[in-house]
Amino acid sequence: MCAMEVDSRQPDLVSEYMRDYWIPLSHTVDAFLHPSSQTSPISFQETFTLVYKCVGEGHSDRLHHDLMQAVTKYLKRLHVDLVQCLTSDNEGRQDQGIINMIHVFDAALVDYIKAVKGISATFSYLGKYFAQKKNYKTLEDELTYMFCLEIAEHFIHDILSCVERSPPFTLDPGLLSRLFHNLQTVSRDGYGTLYSKLFARFVTDALPRMQEQDLQSHIAEVHELQAQMRRELEQSNACNFESIQIRNPSQKRSADDCE
After folding, report:
1. Tens of pLDDT along 35-73?
2. Entry's InterPro entries (predicted)?
3. What pLDDT shows up at residue 228?
4. SS3 per-residue string spanning the chain
5. What's the pLDDT tens digit per position in 127-183?
6. Angle of CA points 248, 166, 151, to nearest 5°
7. 112 pLDDT more than 80
8. 92: exposed, middle or buried (C-beta count within 10 Å: 0-12, 13-18, 19+)?
9. 245 neighbors 252 (Cβ within 8 angstroms)
10. pLDDT band at residue 209, thresholds of 50, 70 and 90?
């Protein structure tokens, strides 16, 4: 009889969890992940209190699972959006698709880092519970790792290849600086270690601390980079001049007439 009573209570426990805890908490998660949406989250104090009660009622594993599922769902939608940037018609220019993707990627990463900070703060008791009881990494570490796993790992090579081969100022330097710093943040310096030379152009501490014997080679690299940028700038100016001549052939004829 007791076993039957316990079994009959299971659906009620699930529905109570959904009604009293996850549904209101999910609105807060959605508001963090979609800052421009019309979702009305509950206050920080209410969220923290609900998380505290939810963990205290023994729903910590379920809450953690639902939180991870909500974030994963968001990241998978973002992945689709980024792929569409790469595959959509960009006037026959493959690089334009990558550039569009980088802009979307950068904006999404900025929003995601803010969302992670908000979620980690409001769900801090859940993170603390897992850290103490299950020897778990922090909630912030887990959420940033999810971005690397679901998003960055799939697009990092396209981004880095585009940055390496594109002429200067194809992408705004401020955007690139922010993007590389944020990639360094979510990867916990992992990408900076793997792609140290490229990251060093935008992140000051991407390379190991320089020793005295490295100074001359560093100066040579700087000179080579400056020379490369000058060559690319001259090439870009030449292309622009030729384009103007093609569009306005009368200017060239006028110059010839003067001779």
Report:
1. 887 767 788 999 999 999 999 999 999 999 999 999 999
2. CACUL1, Cullin_repeat-like_dom_sf
3. 75
4. CHHHHHHHHHHHHHHHHHHHHHHHHHHHHHHHHCCCCCCCCCCHHHHHHHHHHHHHCCCHHHHHHHHHHHHHHHHHHHHHHHHHHHHCCCCCCHHHHHHHHHHHHHHHHHHHHHHHHHHHHHCHHHHHHHHHHCCCCCHHHHHHHHHHHHHHHHHHHHHHHHHHHCCCCCCCHHHHHHHHHHHHHHCCCHHHHHCHHHHCCCCCCCCCCCCHHHHHHHHHHHHHHHHHHHHHHHHHHHHHHHHHHHHCHHHHHHHHHHC
5. 888 877 766 678 999 999 999 999 999 999 999 999 988 888 889 999 999 999 999
6. 135
7. yes
8. exposed
9. yes
10. low
pTM exceeding 0.85: no
Using an 8 Å Cβ cutoff, are 186 and 147 in contact? Answer: yes
- CA–CA distance, 235 with 203 (Å, rounded to integer): 27
pLDDT at position 206 is: 67
For residues 25 and 68, what is the distance between their CA atoms, to the nearest angstrom?
Answer: 13
Burial 115-151 (b: 16+ CB within 10 A, else e): bbebbbebbbbbbebbeeeeeeeebbebbbbbbbebb
